[in-house]
Amino acid sequence: MFDWILGVIVAGGLIGVAFLMLAENVAPPIPSEVIMPLAGFAAAQGMLSFPGVVVAGTAGALAGAWLWYEVGRRVKDERLRRFVERHGRWLTLDLDDLERSQRFFRERGGWAVFLGRLLPGVRTFVSVPAGLMRMPQLAFLAWSLLGTALWTFLLAAAGYLLQSQHHRVEAWLDPIAYAVTALVVALYAWRVIRFRARG
Asked: What is the recorded membrane topology of this protein (predicted)?
């Protein structure tokens, strides 16, 4: 995969970086922890401009986030409510929880989206509940832009500064990704076990 990512960056330049970050948000096995440090390394070698790398990476990732947001938003309220009624235990939601979640995302979902865009293992998936819970589109895009721009800048800067050692970024971030994923799975399992539908 590393050679393929490198080939896309070399052949496609900034468009290749944007394409890879779009793909990373649509197909999570392609890791931004490899893409952006490698793009930062290419900028350090003079093959790409560093600001261009950050802008291209942010644009691609934001497009992918918006795609998943739209997938969630296009689920009709009535269909979502029926799904919650039937499968609420596995969603760890009942209808009261659904209404509270929708209010939260409408009023204060920005921080959830912003922080979610910075967390390995969560970045791709935070867009779906934001869409399902009808978070306002402009607010979603604004908070996603902030989180995504910060994430891509940090990864590209790490690759730029480390240069030939850019692969160490992924090694540093892997334990964090595993820890966050394990925590999310544990919290989900705990909520499924303890779930009690009201009413």
From this structure: Multi-pass membrane protein
Which pLDDT does position 134 carry in this prediction?
A: 85
**Can you tell me which residue has the tokens 């009535």?**
78
Short-list 65, 52, 64, 45, CA closest to 17: 52
Residues 70, 143, 119, 191, Cα dihedral to 10°: -60
DSSP per-residue codes, 24-70: HHHSTTS-HHHHHHHHHHHHHTTSS-HHHHHHHHHHHHHHHHHHHHH
**From the centroid of its chain, how far is CA 195?**
27
Q: Note the Cα 7 to chain centre separation in Å.
A: 24
- Write the pLDDT tens digit of every residue in 29-73: 677 888 888 899 889 888 899 999 999 999 999 999 999 899 888
DSSP secondary structure string, 139-158?
HHHHHHHHHHHHHHHHHHHH
- With a CB cutoff of 8 Å and minimum separation 6, the contacts of 149 are 54, 58
Tokens describing residue 74: 């296009």
What pTM did the predictor assign? 0.76
